[in-house]
C-alpha cells in the first residue's frame, strides 16, 4: 500500500512539475533557515553549561544602591568566598577569582609572551570542570607560587605540555614580578566558555599584591559557590542579602546568587533583579524560525490548493471507484511527507554549504554532526513540517463529493477564502515586522557609530603595556613620540571600554556620610588628555609646568553634577584619605555602552600604574607607523606587540547587536521571499478559479489594465491589512528595544512608511506576473472547456 502511494506521489510531482519545483524549493529554503537558527540557538543555550556540577554552581552578584539607581555587577570583595564558606551551611564549596590585572608577561629564557588569565584558588577546580592534560588536578594551586597554563601557552613557552610541568617561569605586571612553577597544563577552553584564560595564578598571591586593598569596601573579585543539593535558593538569597553590610556597616551593597549557567544568557538587570539579556535574542530567533517554518508551510498549502482545480477529476474518479476519504487523506499526507523529506535533504546539504559563511556572520564555530540529539531534532522538524504543510490540503482535497467533482460544481466556502487570505495577511505582517526591525536596528547602529563619545576614537592605537618596565615607561613613550607618523602618546591604568575600576573612596565637604557614590577611577600619565582628545570644559590638564600633580585631580561633568560643585576648579576633595585639588573638568565621555548613562569619573596622575599605552597616529602611512612602533616595543620588551584600535574596541560593545542585525537581514530576506512564494501561489489559485471569467471579460472587450486590476486589487487589500496590523506591533517592540539604550535614535515615520511601500512594491511585482499571465491568455483557451 505504501509503495502504491509513493508511486502515486511521484506521478503527481511529475505531472505538475512547476508547482512541485516551487514547493520543493520553498520548503528547502525554509528548512535550511530553520536548521541554521536551531544550530545557533542550541549553541547559545549550551554556553557556560558544560560543567559536571553546573546545576549547583552559582555566581554571587552584588547590587550597589547608588544615587543614580541600583547597579548590578558580578564583582565582590576579595574575602567574600572565604567568609561565605565559613559562615553559611548551604555552601559546600566557595571559590574567589579575579581578572583584575590582565596582560601578564611570562618569560622562559628568551621566549616571552603575554596572556589574559585568572587568579584562582584550588577550590575553583573542585567546582568547575577543567580538563587537565598534565599535573594533578587536586594539587594545582597548593602553593602561592603555583601556575597552571593552557595547552597553547605550554607549547609556545616550552615546546609541549609535558615539558612544561615543574618548570619555573618569570612573570611581571606593573611593579609586580615573581618566579612561579608550572604545576598543571589544561586543554584549551572551547567555544562553549565565555572566558578562555591562558593561565591560572594563585588567588592568594593576588590578595598579597593588593595588601590593604583587600577589604569589604573594595570590589575586585568574583565569587562562585557550589551549593548543597537541598538548598532553597530563594531563602538563601534572603539570607545573604545583608551579608556585606554585616561586614561593613557603611556599605550600600546587597548580594544574591544567580545560576552560573544563566549568567551568559541573563546578563541584564533592572532594579537589582534579572531582566533578560542575550536570552531575548534566543527567543527572537526561535520565533523567527517558527514563523519561517509556518510561512514555508503556508506556501505549500496555497500552492497545493491552487493546483487542486487540476486534480478534481482525479479525486472524483478515485472516489467513484470506491476510494475512501481516509485513503485519499493518507495519499495526500504521503505526498507531504515525501516532499518535505526531499526538502529536508536539500536543506541539510545547503546547511553544510552555508556553514562557513554562517559561522563568519555569527562569530561561532558551529558544525552539523549527526549525533542522536540532532537526528531526533531533524526527525521532529520533518514530521512537524509535513503535518503543518499537508494537513489542510489533505483535508481540503479529500472532502470533495464525487458527484460535485464530476459536475465541476465545486465552490469554495467563505471560511476557506477567509482562511487562505488570512494566511497571506499573516505572512506579510511577519515580513513587515522583520523589515521594520532591520531598519530600526540599522538606524540605531548608525546612530551609535556617529555618536560623539567625548573623545576622538579615530586613529587611536591601544597597546598592552604589561611587558614594559615601569621605570622605563617615560623614556619608552618619548621614543614612541619621535617615531614617524606618531602625533602623541601616553598611558593609563586600564582600558576605557567598560567599567573597570570603580571606587567609593572619594568624599568631599558636605557629603552625606550615609550615601555611597561610585566613581570610575582612571590613573593617567602626562599627555593622556591631549592624546585621547578629551575636551576640557574648565581648568587645565596635568602638566610638567606645575609641581606635585599627584595631589591634583580632574573630574568629568557627571562627577561635578553628582558632587554639586558650582565652581569646581580649585575645590578640594578627599581620595582614600588624601586631599586632592580639582584642577580641571573634562566633558563627559562614554566608557561604557551607550545603553548606559555616563557615570561619574575622575582622572588622577599615577604613571606607575600603566596597563595601556595610547598612541595617536597619522592616518597616512598607517602600516609603516605601526611597524615602527612595534619595532620599538619588541626592542623594549622582547615580545610581540598586542594592539588594537579604540574604535574597534568600542564597536565590540555592540558585537551582539551587530550580529543580530546581520542575521535579521538574512532571515528577513528569506521570510519576504517565502511570503512572495505564498502570494504567488494564491495569485495562481485565483487566476485558475477566475480563468473563465477573465476569458468572458476579454471577449466582451476588457482591456489588459482592467484585467490586471481585477486580479491584483484583492491582494493589495490584503497587503494593506498586513501593514495596518504589523505597524503598531512593530512600533511597540522597536520602542521597547530602543529603551534599553540611554542614547537612542528616534523612531522616524519614514521607517514605517518606507517599509510599507517596499512591501507593496514587492507584492505588486509578485502578483503582477500572475495577473499579466492571466490577462495575456487567449480567451479561446480559457473558454474551450465549455
Automatic annotation (TrEMBL):
This is FtsX-like permease family protein. InterPro entries: ABC3_permease_C (IPR003838), MacB_PCD (IPR025857), Macrolide_Exporter_MacB (IPR050250). Keywords: Cell membrane, Membrane, Transmembrane, Transmembrane helix. Residues 21-241, 429-624 form the MacB-like periplasmic core domain. Its main location: membrane. Residues 287-401, 667-779 form the ABC3 transporter permease C-terminal domain. It comes from Algoriphagus aquimarinus. It is found in: Cell membrane. Pfam families: FtsX, MacB_PCD. The chain crosses the membrane at residues 20-41, 284-306, 327-354, 374-397, 418-442, 666-687, 707-734, 749-769. It is a multi-pass membrane protein. Coiled coil: none annotated.
Amino acid at each position: 500500500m505504501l509503495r502504491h502511494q509513493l508511486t502515486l506521489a511521484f506521478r503527481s510531482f511529475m505531472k505538475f512539475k512547476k508547482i512541485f519545483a516551487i514547493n520543493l524549493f520553498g520548503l528547502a529554503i525554509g528548512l535550511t533557515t530553520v536548521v541554521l537558527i536551531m544550530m545557533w540557538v542550541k549553541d547559545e543555550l549550551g554556553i557556560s553549561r558544560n560543567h559536571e556540577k553546573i546545576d549547583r554552581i552559582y555566581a554571587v552578584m552584588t547590587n550597589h544602591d547608588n544615587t543614580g539607581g541600583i547597579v548590578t555587577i558580578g564583582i565582590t570583595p576579595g574575602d567574600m568566598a572565604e567568609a561565605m564558606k565559613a559562615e553559611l551551611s548551604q555552601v559546600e564549596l566557595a571559590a574567589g577569582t579575579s581578572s583584575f590585572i590582565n596582560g601578564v608577561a611570562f618569560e622562559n629564557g628568551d621566549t616571552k609572551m603575554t596572556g589574559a588569565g585568572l587568579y584562582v584558588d584550588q577550590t575553583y577546580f573542585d567546582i568547575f570542570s577543567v580538563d587537565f592534560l598534565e599535573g594533578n588536578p587536586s594539587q594545582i594551586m597548593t602553593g602561592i607560587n603555583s601556575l597552571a597554563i593552557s595547552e597553547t601557552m605550554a607549547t609556545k613557552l616550552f615546546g609541549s605540555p609535558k615539558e612544561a610541568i615543574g618548570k619555573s617561569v618569570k612573570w611581571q605586571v606593573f611593579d609586580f614580578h615573581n618566579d612561579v612553577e608550572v604545576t598543571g597544563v589544561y586543554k584549551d577552553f572551547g567555544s562553549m566558555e565565555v572566558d578562555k584564560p591562558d593561565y591560572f595564578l594563585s588567588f592568594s598571591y593576588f590578595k598579597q599584591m593588593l595588601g590593604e586593598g583587600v577589604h569589604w569596601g573594595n570590589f575586585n573579585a568574583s565569587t562562585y559557590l557550589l551549593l548543597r543539593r537541598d538548598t532553597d535558593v530563594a531563602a538563601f538569597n534572603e539570607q545573604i542579602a545583608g551579608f556585606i553590610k554585616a561586614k561593613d556597616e557603611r556599605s550600600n551593597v546587597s548580594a544574591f546568587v544567580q545560576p552560573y549557567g544563566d549568567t551568559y544568557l541573563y546578563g541584564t538587570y533592572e532594579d537589582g533583579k534579572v531582566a533578560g539579556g542575550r536570552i531575548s535574542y534566543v527567543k527572537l530567533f526561535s520565533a523567527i524560525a517558527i514563523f519561517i517554518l509556518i510561512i514555508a508551510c503556508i506556501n505549500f498549502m496555497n500552492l497545493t490548493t491552487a493546483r487542486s482545480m487540476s486534480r478534481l477529476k482525479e479525486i472524483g474518479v478515485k472516489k467513484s471507484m470506491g476510494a475512501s476519504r481516509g485513503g485519499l487523506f493518507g495519499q495526500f499526507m504521503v505526498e507531504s511527507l515525501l516532499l518535505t523529506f526531499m526538502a529536508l535533504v536539500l536543506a541539510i546539504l545547503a546547511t553544510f554549504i552555508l556553514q562557513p559563511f554562517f559561522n563568519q556572520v555569527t562569530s561561532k564555530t558551529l558544525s552539523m554532526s549527526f549525533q542522536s540529539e540532532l537526528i531526533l531534532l531533524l526527525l521532529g522538524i520533518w514530521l512537524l513540517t509535513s503535518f503543518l504543510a499537508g494537513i489542510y490540503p489533505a483535508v481540503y482535497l479529500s472532502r470533495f463529493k464525487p458527484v460535485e467533482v464530476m459536475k465541476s460544481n465545486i465552490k469554495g466556502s467563505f471560511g476557506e477564502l477567509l482562511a487562505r487570505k488570512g494566511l497571506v495577511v499573516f505572512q506579510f505582517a511577519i515580513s513587515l515586522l522583520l523589515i521594520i526591525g532591520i531598519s530600526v536596528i540599522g538606524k540605531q547602529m548608525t546612530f551609535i557609530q556617529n555618536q560623539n563619545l567625548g573623545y576622538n576614537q579615530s586613529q587611536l592605537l591601544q597597546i598592552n603595556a604589561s611587558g614594559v618596565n615601569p621605570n622605563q615607561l617615560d623614556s619608552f613613550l618619548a621614543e614612541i613620540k619621535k617615531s614617524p607618523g606618531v602625533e602623541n602618546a601616553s598611558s593609563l591604568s586600564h582600558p576605557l571600554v567598560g567599567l573597570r575600576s570603580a571606587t567609593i573612596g572619594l568624599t568631599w565637604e558636605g557629603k552625606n556620610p550615609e550615601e555611597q557614590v561610585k566613581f570610575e577611577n582612571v590613573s593617567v600619565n602626562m599627555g593622556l588628555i591631549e592624546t585621547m582628545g578629551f575636551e576640557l570644559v574648565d581648568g587645565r590638564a596635568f602638566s610638567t609646568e606645575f609641581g606635585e600633580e599627584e595631589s591634583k585631580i580632574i573630574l568629568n561633568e557627571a562627577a561635578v553634577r553628582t558632587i554639586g560643585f558650582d565652581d569646581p576648579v580649585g575645590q578640594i576633595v578627599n581620595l582614600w584619605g588624601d586631599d586632592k585639588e580639582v584642577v580641571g573638568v573634562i566633558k563627559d565621555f562614554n566608557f561604557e555602552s551607550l545603553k548606559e548613562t555616563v557615570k561619574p569619573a575622575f582622572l588622577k596622575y599615577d604613571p606607575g600604574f600603566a596597563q595601556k599605552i595610547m598612541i595617536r597616529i597619522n592616518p597616512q602611512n598607517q602600516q609603516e607607523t605601526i611597524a615602527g612602533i612595534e619595532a620599538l616595543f619588541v626592542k623594549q620588551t622582547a615580545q610581540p606587540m598586542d594592539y588594537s584600535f579604540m574604535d574597534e574596541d568600542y564597536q565590540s560593545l555592540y558585537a551582539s547587536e551587530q550580529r543580530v542585525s546581520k542575521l535579521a537581514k538574512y532571515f528577513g530576506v528569506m521570510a519576504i521571499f517565502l511570503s512572495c512564494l505564498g502570494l504567488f501561489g494564491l495569485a495562481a489559485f485565483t487566476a485558475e478559479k477566475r480563468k473563465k471569467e477573465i476569458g468572458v471579460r476579454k471577449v466582451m472587450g476588457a482591456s489588459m489594465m482592467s484585467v490586471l486590476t481585477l486580479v491584483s486589487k484583492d491582494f493589495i487589500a490584503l497587503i494593506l491589512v498586513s501593514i495596518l496590523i504589523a505597524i503598531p506591533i512593530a512600533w511597540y517592540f522597536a520602542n521597547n528595544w530602543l529603551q534599553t539604550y540611554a542614547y537612542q535614535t528616534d523612531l522616524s515615520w519614514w521607517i514605517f512608511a518606507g517599509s510599507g511601500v517596499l512591501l507593496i512594491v514587492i507584492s505588486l511585482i509578485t502578483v503582477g506576473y500572475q495577473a499579466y499571465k492571466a490577462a495575456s491568455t487567449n480567451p479561446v483557451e480559457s473558454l474551450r472547456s465549455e
